[in-house]
Amino acid sequence: MQKSSKKILGLMGAGSAALVGTGAFAQQAKNPNVIVIMADDIGYGDLSCNGEKTISTPNVEKLASQGVRFTDAHSAAATSTPSRYSFLTGHYNWRRGDTHIADGDAGMIIRPEQYTVADLFKESGYKTGAIGKWHLGLGDKKGSQNWNGVITPGLKDIGFDYSYIMAATADRVPCVWVEDMKVVNLDANDSIFVSYVKNFEGEPTGKNNPELLYRQKPSHGHDQSIVNGISRIGYMKGGKNALWEDQFIADSITNHAIDFIDENKDNPFFLYLATNDIHVPRVPHPRFEGKSGMGVRGDALLEFDWTVGKVLETLDRLNLTENTIIILTSDNGPVVDDGYQDLAVELLGKHRPWGEFRGGKYSNFEAGTRIPFIVSWKGVTKGTVSNALVAQIDFMGSMAAMLGKELPNSTCIDTQNQLKSWLGKDKKGRDYVVESAQSLSISDGKWKFIRPNNGAKMNKFTNTELGNDKTPQLYNIKKDRNEKVNLYDKNKKKADELNALLEAEKSKTQK
How far apart are CA 369 and CA 362, in angstroms? Predict the structure, then answer.
């Protein structure tokens, strides 16, 4: 497939002003900067703007006060890799069989020939950057990366001019930064070796050498190679000078984001800023230690809020605030114990990361994919709350409409133009959203249908209800927010209607 798109006339200028009902849009609509702040494992209830009284995230509140805060927003999946894949491509992860949680040596899941949001912005004259957690694979295929040279294919091949990323995520090796597809600070005399099959001779592991775990110990899994006193998933040897220090991860991501904004202040830019923070292992900077009263997970939430504040400060300093759209969201729902003995469960207190919803990360239930979602464009958005049904997968379609571009008839078959909804002018949003976790589910904002499956009821490691059942499930989520009463037997007609919509989505093909 060749990457291409066609101009749509009449979507900008006066037409866009009419679209959102304000003349401010007409003034600001010419190439606004776009920043996506993609949080990791932050739940709907983890942010004080969503009503949680046990935590204070004032910078996120500030962003919400000048934006649109959504109460019914959804990721495409309840885990990281598939959710991020869908966000960046406008293509449902479940249409492919290889978008599961990626190992650190996974090949690129988004292939160079596939159209991405970065391609969309780049074609429109934007500088594009990806900074922070990646977790979508690098190189051509699993285990083929040249960690000691240029890793190819890479993010430049899918539309990003600049990248400074984790190869995967914090609990997986290799624990190094990759900048423009080269490992940062690598000593040529200390080559990196990575394996997800077997350990390297003589290298300690968390399983065999627990005495070396001076920072955190695993609660389940995460007992392989040791980096900074923490054992991870996967095996790694070498690259000592290139290893990140966990307590400085947020600072490194934030500083590189600020540098990117500074360097591109005179031209339009798109920045995909993917924070790490409360993903395990949680090691917030010492300046946040003990500040939340909820241990390292709560402290990491404060660290995330600090990053948001630094971005807002930078935009103000450069007089870019009124010409920048900021979208703040999370890749999936929350999890408390996700593999380390960090006292997150014991110190949680009355805090509810999932808010009023059931489940969490990995789950078919609502907390698996109902995520924080704020769209802020100062001067256009007005500090409102919207109950519109919205989905992250519509980032591609909505930005294409804003930029006056037509998407190629390729893999972008699932994204919609929801620009009106995202800017708070359409109170309805989507007709329905499709979500994937252990099974497929669908919600129209009132009714939610979960397809039957034979999976386990609980994730015994994270203590998360997975929402699996051999019987189809139907919930009135307007009245039964916690999905306690299965109404399938009482309303099979509605269940059949929603299941038919799922079948129609599954049968949709590329044009």
Answer: 9
pLDDT digits (tens, 9 = 90+) for 184-206: 999 999 999 999 999 999 999 99
Token representation of residue 427:
């109170």
Tokens of 240: 């000592």
Residue type, 323: N
- Angle (CA) 31-33-35 rounded to 5° is 150
Residue 509: per-residue pLDDT: 78
d(CA 123, CA 3): 10
State how far the Cα of 153 lies from the Cα of 109, in Å rounded to an integer: 11
Amino acid letter for position 370: R
Residues 476 and 274: their CA atoms lie apart, in Å, by 33
DSSP-derived 3-state class of residue 245:
coil
Q: Which is nearest to 204 in space by CA: 185, 229, 221, 182?
A: 229
Percent of the chain having pLDDT more than 70?
A: 93
The first and second tokens of residue 461, run together, are 């490691």
Q: Dihedrals φ, ψ of 73, to 5°?
A: -110, 145
Cβ pair 416, 430 in contact under 8 A? yes
DSSP class of residue 55 equals -
* Whether the predicted model's global pTM rises above the 0.85 cut: yes
